[in-house]
Write a structure and sequence with these properties.
- The chain has 158 residues and is mainly α.
- It folds into two domains: 101 residues, Recoverin, domain 1 (Orthogonal Bundle), CATH 1.10.238.10; 49 residues.
- 72% of the residues lie in helices and 3% in strands.
- The protein contains seven helices and two strands, in the order αβαααβααα.
- α2 crosses α3.
Length: 158
């Protein structure tokens, strides 16, 4: 038997055990988040508002649980905005659970890379819009009686 096969035989059961443990912990976390959502949703509307989340965090139980899974509750507004993925101003059960599951624990390298990529795309779009505005301003200035461009410094900003 080669070394790889021996390592596989020895470590595979351990890896499998760790995966099963991870899945069961994940399932328990999802169940706990669903239960917490139901407690926050006192009106049984299947949606919670910023005030509902703020009140639940201030009471301590939600804050303690979120902190225990690695989600900071120092900035309630930012937390709420991150969970409100459809930007309706309220959070439903799916948004709450999936948002908390994505936020829990330390940031993962893939998430950081995605944020960096999205930031780069946003900066490129802003730069392009800035150039378009500069060009439009230049055309307006040359086609009218204005002697100086209205936005001369916009090109240099980016």
């Amino acid at each position: 038997m080669c070394c790889r096969a021996l390592v596989f035989e020895v470590s595979f059961p351990r890896v499998l055990d760790n995966l099963l443990l991870c899945f069961s912990q994940c399932a328990l976390t999802v169940e706990a988040l669903q239960q917490i959502f139901q407690e926050i949703d006192r009106d049984q509307e299947n949606e919670v508002s910023f005030e509902d989340v703020k009140t639940a965090i201030a009471s301590g139980e939600l804050a303690d649980f979120l902190e225990s899974i690695g989600i900071s509750t120092n900035d309630v507004w930012t937390l709420f905005m991150l969970l409100d993925s459809d930007r309706k101003g309220s959070i439903d059960l799916d948004e709450f659970v999936s948002g908390c599951m994505q936020l829990h624990g330390p940031a993962k390298s893939l998430q950081m890379a995605k944020m960096s990529y999205e930031n780069k795309l946003t900066r490129q779009a802003i730069k392009s819009l800035s150039q378009d505005i500069y060009n439009l301003n230049k055309k307006l200035t040359t086609s009218t009686s204005f002697k100086e461009p209205m936005l001369p410094a916009i090109k240099e900003q980016f």
